Amino acid sequence: MSDPDTSGEASPFHVDYEAVFRAFPGPALLLTPDLAMVDANDAFLGRSGRGRRDLAGRAVFEVFPVDSSDPEAPGSQLRASVDRVLATGRQDAMPLRRYELETPGRPGELENRYWSPVNAPVLGPDGQVALIISRVEEVTELVRIRAALQEAGDALSDEVTMTAGLLARSQDLQELNERLRLAHSREREIAISLQRAMLPPVPAGFSEVAVRYRPATSSLNVCGDWYDVLDLGQDRLAVAVGDVVGHGLEAAGVMGQLRSALSAAVRATGEPATALKTLALQALTIEGALAATALQTIVDRTAHTITYSRAGHLPPLLLHPDGCAAEVLDEVVDPPLGVWDIDTVRNQASHSYEPGATLVLYTDGLIERRGEDIDTGLERLTDSLTRHRDLDPEDLASALLTDVHPIGDGPDDDTALVVVRL
User: Fold this and answer.
1) Neighbours of 288 (CB within 10 A)
2) Whole-structure pTM value
3) How far are the Cα atoms of 123, 308, 355, 366, 386 from residue 324, in angstroms, in the given order?
4) How far apart are CA 194 and CA 272, in angstroms?
5) pLDDT by residue (tens digit) across 69-105?
6) What's CA 173's distance to the chain center, in Å?
7) Rg (the chain; Cα; Å)
8) Left (φ > 0), alpha (ψ -120 to 50) or beta: where does 127 sit?
9) Rounded CA gap, 17 and 2, in Å?
């Protein structure tokens, strides 16, 4: 490990931080954001009865299995805690947890162990969370002594009484944390309901259009993505997607304002670039909208053209009728809505297509995965689109969601998707 210099001054000492981590008296585990174990200190190895070779490089739940289907299970709690660390860049304390671990020296025999965990971020040079220090304090003996003395009716010593009081306070905090999580869960449900209510259905007469909105699996990144499909008349169809930075009710509210504003602008102007310029001006007046992205397209079924403009958003895909290749439409791109000089002209491009082609618009939740270049995710999407080219739009939309980014795999972000058979 290199020696970090956070003070800006040269240190007169050489510190081996790897040795410091190994010798730290409290049990600690070093995790990647995907919950793979990088290292464990000596105290953790001693308490867990595992060797360093048993842990390094392996998924934490592979070594310490839990019931991942139970949202209250330790594994689900750890995943949620790490997600909070990743989202906030701050440490997160978990409630007191009970684990069934194999008794050291007695293969196949399990015993209850009680740990109080805290997860803290290690930031990389880019300021993002690169690693997680999961520090645990084992209180198994305290729990056992307290239970035994209470069962026997014996009085507790002053030291045990004080420690038991701290344990009781920890349990009180656990109950408070549970109430807060329930409140967050209710807010998430309300936000998703609001989000779904504001997303429009496909206009009548356009059976060759499929839309999807899939919320994030936790409350951290839910809401903010949107789609819109409008019948402009004269065999023209306006299709848009967008993404608001943020989550919850606030993001859903900003999303609703931006979607409505863009819908009105494209109806009035009939031009994607002009509509996005109007939306950018509107975004300056909406708190939380400055980093939002959007993609507006207009499909002219008579001229067989797609005209589009991008405000910092990912490019649309066009699958040709022969199904041999999916083309990325990236001739033009402008900054996100708020990162823009109002005197700057927004750009648009037109692209011709053959009848039977397929147009796909999406938000970054579909292709982004933690620790992976976004171009890799885009290539995965184009490959999937080509592979499922014979499906109708509804089945194709479902296949893309399942094939490209199954739930629980990769980053936890909501996703909007529109598939149009031209």
Assistant:
1) 19
2) 0.58
3) 43, 23, 15, 22, 7
4) 27
5) 555 555 567 777 888 888 778 888 776 666 666 666 6
6) 27
7) 27
8) left
9) 7
